[in-house]
Design a protein that fits this description.
This protein is an alpha/beta fold. It has 14 helices and 18 strands. The radius of gyration is 22 Å and the shape is globular.
């Protein structure tokens, strides 16, 4: 099955251009109702702070109600908050209007089923098949505005901690990316007694992710140094992702967080199957750290949906991506930047150790990464120049190295990852592959 519109994280593109238009969103809402195949399904809609969000929200709601569905508008809310709301209130599905870490001119739509998990590929394919269909209904659905959703999500996140847990005395620098977590994360930390220094929490519709957020690590590093915080916390636009920074101003990636959380659960005897789920992008050092403690790492394709699928199939409870998507399946059904941060803060508090010490649990292999914009996405094996550069790199890095080249599932870009022992060699071959991509694509 080849999907025309859905990528690894819903449908995404530039707002106002197909498929991120009001007309398409309206059709998408009707198609969702038809695929749910249930009389008067109840569907929640949440969004981030982008200027185009209300337009897409209203259009999607029109499509759902015109097909007989009922809509609950949750307003601005982190993606994990929308997923949790669906589960707690036993709704039939949910939509999140967000382009995550993308700039403000982009937007997207992704769906969750009634169990709080993202829709499988087959269901997204079925929705695409229904886009041009008709749905006859005797009565249009209704739209309800739900109040106080931010407080409900904060309460949900805090339930992931032991009773009586406190962050009193901890100074935290927080970068909200001018996104969906601009209220919720600072509120949760203050409830726990932390001293919170908040930045980028004044969304105006166009400043989301603008020189801030989890993809701009230098910003949370600066904020930690300027505030004297013991830890820095940064989200992406919809707050399903987390970037932490230690007290020296040095950011941690998702592999370090996975290693810390996985080793902690292993010591407690609480890591189901003694297994951590990661993607092909994760550092080989993660495997070594978990294996030395008696566990194992299994890998999936890139995308938190695929990490979740492997977790659910294997009965595992911890997984994530190098980018900072962390999934604690006991506490939620999707990546949750706030819950993930709280779990690491718990580990800090109980161990009495700072992040700069805890992160030593993993000895990472050197990596070289490149991202190249492309005009087309042919099969890589059909492009001789790229194949030749990849083969040369693989031979040079053998036997303890790897080359991974793939197209992004959310943007017109190609991503290159090389890993091995010799950092200089990695950089050289990453540049050669990137040059071949630029010349060919």
């Amino acid at each position: 099955m080849t999907r025309r519109y859905f990528g690894t994280d819903g449908i995404r593109g530039r707002a106002g251009e197909t498929p991120i238009t009001a007309e398409f969103a309206e059709k998408l809402g009707g198609a969702l109702v038809r695929v749910l195949d249930k009389a008067n399904p109840v569907i929640a809609i949440g969004r981030d702070t982008r200027q185009s969000g209300p337009m897409l929200q209203d259009a999607l709601a029109r499509g759902i109600t015109s097909a007989g569905g009922k809509v609950c508008l949750l307003g601005v809310l982190p993606t994990p908050g929308v997923a949790a709301f669906v589960v707690v209130n036993r709704l039939d599905a949910a939509a999140v209007i967000s382009a995550s870490h993308n700039p403000a001119h982009d937007n997207g739509i992704k769906f969750f089923s009634g169990d709080g998990f993202k829709l499988p590929d087959a269901t997204e394919f079925a929705i695409e098949e229904q886009l041009d269909g008709e749905f006859a209904t005797g009565m249009a659905g209704t739209v309800s505005v739900i109040e106080d959703t931010a407080r409900q999500y904060v309460a949900h996140a805090l339930r992931s901690l032991p009773a009586g847990f406190s962050l009193h005395g901890l100074k935290v620098a927080v970068d909200c990316a001018n996104g969906a977590a601009f209220e919720t994360t600072p509120a949760a930390l203050r409830v726990l007694g932390a001293e919170v220094h908040v930045s980028h929490a004044s969304p105006d519709g166009i400043n989301i992710n603008a020189d801030c957020g989890s993809t701009v690590s230098r910003e949370i590093s600066r904020l930690v140094k300027e505030s004297g915080a013991r830890v820095g916390l940064s989200h992406d636009g919809d707050a399903d992702r987390l970037l932490l920074c230690d007290e020296t101003g040095d950011p941690l990636d998702g592999d370090e967080l996975l290693a810390m959380a996985g080793l902690d659960l292993l010591r407690r005897g609480e890591l189901a199957g003694n297994t951590v789920v990661a993607t092909v992008m994760s550092n080989l050092g993660l495997d070594e750290a978990i294996e030395q403690a008696g566990g194992k790492v299994i890998r999936t394709a890139v995308g938190d949906r695929y990490v979740l699928e492997a977790m659910r199939e294997g009965g595992f409870i911890l997984g994530g991506e190098q980018s900072g998507h962390m999934i604690f399946l006991r506490h939620g059904t999707t990546g949750d930047g706030l819950v993930s941060a709280l779990q690491i803060f718990r580990l800090m508090a109980e161990s009495g150790k700072p992040l700069s010490e805890l992160r030593q649990a993993i000895r990472k292999y050197p990596q070289a990464q490149r991202t190249v914009a492309v005009k087309s996405q042919p099969a890589l094996e059909s492009v001789p120049a790229i194949q030749a550069a990849m083969t040369t790199a693989e031979q040079a890095l053998a036997p303890r190295g790897r080359v991974l080249v793939r197209y992004s599932g959310t943007e017109p870009k190609l991503r290159i990852l090389l890993e091995g022992r010799d950092a200089g060699m990695l950089e050289m071959h990453a540049d050669r592959i990137a040059d071949a991509v630029r010349q060919s694509l």
